[in-house]
What we know:
By secondary structure, this protein is an all-alpha fold. About 70% of the residues lie in helices and about 5% in strands. The chain has helices at about 10-20, 35-50, 50-60, 75-90, 95-130, 140-165, 170-175, 175-200, 220-225, 230-245, 250-265, and strands at about 210, 215-220. Strands 1-2 form a two-stranded antiparallel ribbon. Strand 1 (about 210) and strand 2 (about 215-220) form a beta hairpin. The radius of gyration is 26 Å and the shape is elongated. The model has no long low-confidence stretch (mean pLDDT about 85).
Amino acid sequence: MTNKRLDRKDVKRAAWTWMFFHHCAQNYERMQGLAFCHTMSKALEKLYGDDEEELKSALTRHMQFFNTEPQLGSIIPGITLALEEGRANHEVDTNLILSTKNALMGPFAGIGDSLVMGTYSPILLSIAIGLSQDGSPVGAIFFIIAWLGTVVPMKYFLFMKGYDLGIDAVKIMMNDRVKNMITTALTIVGLVVIGGVASTTVAAPIKFVFTAGEMSVSIQDILNKIMPTLVPMLLTLGCWWLADKRKWSGNKLILGILGLAAVLVILGIM
């Protein structure tokens, strides 16, 4: 019996295919299913090319519904590729391939959405906003370079590592200690960056001036001596409290800020 193996070139081609096509042909019936099948297709042709029925079966099982966060989730097609190689050599059961895909796409979607899209991306965007003051294009350039310079290598690395480790990759990535360390580190960085952005981009100047006879006192001058960005900080903390404790939506917060600003401007306070 011939030992069917994929060489490094086959795996790399699959990794780059996933990189560029993981959201192609997105639809509500199969989500990323078509993209997943496209990613696997060339490798499957090499593994099952001498058996038309096996090739049809392999392509069919990867056309099924699949949906995950495509950055951290890059490890899943890598693992699946290793399992398919085992299946071609009668070392792995088909049920293991399907159950592994189905079991991993949910957890990696949750982890990836919270870490990459919910934490890392906002951190980069916050820095970019700070660099884009006065219409500067530096912020946009920074985000593009920083995002592509980190996410693309990460996706490629995870895909290749998923293939190299196979099913053992799950034990490493799903380890609670590893997840907690990454989450804590990104949260700390995110809080520092967002705090800095809030102090430099949130504007809430107090224009009210107290007058008594010939004496006039600017409230903003007094606040500047106490803490120059005290009002923006209080406004930011107020928005956080409403969103976290009162469960206000983003749209409700925006309307609330607009309403508060309008009232304060009419009263001559701001």
